[in-house]
Amino acid sequence: MNARLLPLAATLVIFLAAYAVCYAQYPAMLSTRVIGNLLTDNAFLGIVAVGMTFVIISGGIDLSVGSVIAFAGVFIAVLLRDTGLHPLAVFALLLVLATLFGAAMGATIHFLEMPPFIVTLAGMFLARGMAYVLSIDAVPITHEFYDQMQDLYWLMPGKGRLTLIGGLMLLVFIMGGILAHRTRFGMNVYAIGGGAQTAALMGVPLGRTTIAIYALSGLLAGLAGIVFSIYTSAGYSLATVGVELDAIAAVVIGGTLLTGGSGFVAGTLIGVLIMGLIQTYIIFDGALSSWWTKILIGMLLFAFIVLQKGLVWTTAKRRIAGG
Amino acid sequence: MPQSEASQPLLRARGVRKVFPGTVALDGVDFSLRAGEVHALLGENGAGKSTLIKCLTGAYRRDDGDILLNGEIIDPKGTIDAQGYGIGTVYQEVNLLPNLTVAENLSLGHQPTRFGMISTRAMNARAREVLSQYGLDIDVGRSLSSYSVAVQQVIAIARAVTLSGKVLILDEPTASLDSHEVEMLFDVIRSLKQRGLGIVFISHFLDQIFTISDRITVLRNGRLVGTEATRDIDRVALVNMMLGRELEQEVRSHGKTHAGPGEARLAFTGFGRKGRIEPFDLTIQAGEVVGVAGLLGSGRTETAEVLFGVAAHDSGEARRGDGTVLRLTSPREAIAAGFGFCPEDRKTDGVIADLTVRENIALALQARIGWMRRIPDREQKAMANDYIRKLDIRTPDAEKPVGLLSGGNQQKVMLARWLVTNPSFLILDEPTRGIDVGAHAEIIRLIEELCAQGMSLLVISSELDELVAYSHRVLVVRDRRHVAELSGGEITTDNMVRAIAAPEKEAVA
Questions:
Q1: Quick one: how far is CA A235 from the chain centroid?
Q2: Confidence bin at B257 (pLDDT 50/70/90)
Q3: Which residues on B lie below 8 Å from A323 (Cβ)?
Q4: Which of A28, A238, B295, B385 has the most CB atoms around it within 10 Å of its CB?
Q5: In a 10 Å sphere around its CB, with 0-12 CB exposed, 13-18 middle and 19+ buried, how is residue A64 labelled?
Q6: Radius of gyration of chain B (CA)
Q7: Domain parsing of chain A, residue ranges
Q8: Interchain pair B118, A183: CB under 8 A
Q9: B159-213 pLDDT tens trace
């Protein structure tokens, strides 16, 4: 088998095995209701993880997304409370802001030759701080358009509900997959992850692509913020702390190499679902502390890091043997 | 085969000059490439081969001179721009992306798209078609890293030819290939030649150059030595062009006036390391200069590295003159045994450019006495000033960063660093490379002085005249083996050139 598919296959096997274990204990977990909830509950994480997948494949990291989601929630809530703007207009405004924010970080990374870690760390504090400036308290959202959106769903066979935000996440994954694997931009992202210097020598526009990658991550973080505000009907500046780390975990569990250059958008979806599945299992159990989620995710991450290192070693060895 | 002399060259460099701080890397070099020829570019390290290539492709801004393509002056701004003119380059390190598939590598930036989407099928079909012209029938959907370096090299060539198509520059393409793979690469080169491409071939393997090239241009110290048709020249003449004599008279007049060797100081028996240098025997006497002659990549630097423990030896042993066995598996142990080593590439292995003259000089001594006992500033300064005076290092003061000094003075700082540790055996790899003629003579004078004081030296040099001037014995290395040892009256440039050039088979006529 193609070595590039191995991490993806491993993730899929783990997901199916985990689901089989859950099903053996709680047969009710294999229903479209549970699946529908899985998608709805993790919609914002999934959307933001798609952006993170692009960033990590290019060899970077984006620590700002959790704060951008919180900022987005507060921004929407405050604007809906204080102005007569329609939510759709507010959404458009927010998405433009979030995209520009991401693009600015990308430009800083490229033109100042700064490590993405430190630039997006600054972005993280900045966005969180802006959220505080808008409102320290949680701001509830009461708009009839929100009620309409929350009531929108497609009834799956088995009475499961594919909600608007769950469906939106799936749509983002499909678009992300096409963008990554079927466009020149996607190829350039992989090329930069494989080696920025070499990519530049081969004619990849480094600056343009880097800015676009972080702009995309910002855009999707803004969209995740909208989804999160629909999910919670509120904006709160202390919300979604650490979500950027959950997103990174989902991407890595999904089989994307943290060193860049290799990975699949579809793998990230499975990564998100594995994390959601662990949480669902703990809810079904009822007696387990929710901290077990963190412990299991921690162990999974370790396992994947070891798997990836092993893969790199074996391919390197084969290359030496072959060369 | 070369076309008639009257035909206009495809690519031509006229009086190209490039200056780096401290050195003239290219000094008015002319070069011309005809369509349908393989033109070998030859020279030792620092001769200016890669600088010339980088000036041709615009990777460096040249300081003077013109570049003409089909008789018209062009001014490429960089590799991509040069590609637009039709000049493609393939480097020794394959410059492709190992994580992408073969097809993606071939088409990156030029993928066939439909409605903005890449058609993988069309991309793979095109890749298969392109590679079939090179006799490669491989799965283009697999990642590049799953293929051998030779195949990757051919893929890199295919990409360069597809995108440029007039001139192909191959920079040491065979360095990491075995003989079968080299043959495969040569078949590719021959077929491209037939298609009328002009090919610049850089290599330091003389056999390969005689096999594949139509003409040979030799550079030395940034200057053009000459261009010859391959069939009109033999190996000895070629080695003479590469290493030949041009040292100033003042150096030549220096005789071996000092007393010469005393008792044996070090004895290496069966010393070697697999893949680096075959086992050799070597005795070093007190107050002796042993020269090492050979072409680039012949094993001369490897000899030094094995002796100093940079690459630990895996056979043989080292003994002192009194018969005690020495452990030499790391530079640390070598330094403790009283060895010193000035490597070939000052910039990457030698001086630390950002540190001051004083700090650089104190470095080795500090390492020797241990980091816990810091040498007081005052002592460091006194020591630095002492050597600045002794070695005539041209610097305003001891606190100037070494990177700002000229090449010759950097070399002296590196020497000073080892001299403060008072070594009994000093290894110098190309001590006179890339420094001007005046400094050249001073370094040679210094070598003779050190030797007269009883120090033993092993000096690697591609300046054969220089070796004649100061060596008591000369080792000749070829193909990673010590093939000859000359001493006394045998040490002449002619003898050395003959030993270096003599191929295993009969000499190429």
A1: 19
A2: very low
A3: 148-150, 176
A4: B295
A5: buried
A6: 25
A7: 3-322
A8: yes
A9: 999 888 899 999 888 777 777 888 888 999 999 999 999 999 998 778 888 999 9
Q: What is the pLDDT of residue B507?
A: 39
What is d(CA B34, CA A58) in angstroms, rounded to the nearest whole number? 42
Of B455, B489, B492, nearest to B288 (Cα)? Answer: B455
Cβ–Cβ < 8 Å for B450, B290: no
pLDDT at B251: 43
Distance, in Å, from the CA atom of B479 to the CA atom of B503, rounded to the nearest integer, reads 10
Answer yes or no: are the C-beta atoms of A252 and A61 closer than 8 Å. Answer: no
The mean pLDDT of chain A is: 91
Looking up tokens 């073969």 gives B102
Backbone angles phi, psi at B474, to 5 degrees: -130, 125
The answer regarding whether domain A3-322 maps to CATH 2.30.130 reads no
* A178 interface with B at CB cutoff 8 Å: yes
Cβ distance of A178 and B117 shorter than 8 Å: yes
CATH tag, B248-338+423-509: 3.40.50.300
* CA triple B498-B502-B507, angle to 5 deg: 115
Contacts of B456 by beta carbon, 8 Å cutoff, 6+ apart = B265, B266, B284, B285, B286, B287, B288, B289, B290, B424, B425, B426
Structure token pair of residue B406: 């000229």
**What is the predicted ipTM?**
0.85
CATH value of B11-99+143-233 in 3.40.640.10, 3.40.50.2300, 3.40.50.300, 3.30.300.130: 3.40.50.300
Q: Which of B167, B170, B153 is nearest to B208 (CA)?
A: B170
Output the CA torsion sign for A227, A230, A231, A232. Answer: positive
- From the CA of B95, how many Å to the nearest CA of chain A? 6
Find the residue in A nearest to B104 (Cα).
Answer: A187
Question: Which of A3, A183, A187 is the closest to B116 by Cβ?
Answer: A183
Q: Is B148 on the interface with A (CB under 8 A)?
A: yes
DSSP state of B21: T
pLDDT at B392 over 90: no
Quick: pLDDT tens for A136-157: 999 999 999 999 999 999 988 8
From A5's Cα to the closest Cα of chain B, the distance in A is 11
Q: Please report which confidence band the pLDDT of residue A216 belongs to, taking 50, 70 and 90 as the band edges.
A: very high
| Residue B435 pLDDT level (bands cut at 50, 70, 90) | low
For residues B288-294, give the mean pLDDT: 89
Backbone angles phi, psi at B20, to 5 degrees: -105, 155
Mutate to test the interface with B, among A184, A190, A209 (most CBs of B within 10 A): A184
Q: What angle, 0 to 180 degrees and rounded to 10, lies between the N-to-C axes of helices A164-182 and A184-194?
A: 70
Three-class secondary structure of residue B502 per DSSP:
coil
Distance of CA A206 to the CA centre of its chain: 23
Question: With 0-12 CB in 10 A as exposed, 13-18 as middle and 19+ as buried, what is B137?
Answer: exposed
User: For residue A194, which residues of chain B lie inside 8 Å, CB to CB?
Assistant: 97-100
Across the range A44-61, mean pLDDT stands at 97
Contacts of A262 in chain B (CB under 8 A): 99
**B29: exposed, middle or buried (Cβ count in 10 Å: 0-12, 13-18, 19+):** buried
Contact state of A202 with B96 under an 8 Å Cβ cutoff: yes
- Give residue limits of the domains in chain B: 11-99+143-233, 248-338+423-509, 351-422
CA proximity to A77, closest of A228, A222, A219, A234: A234
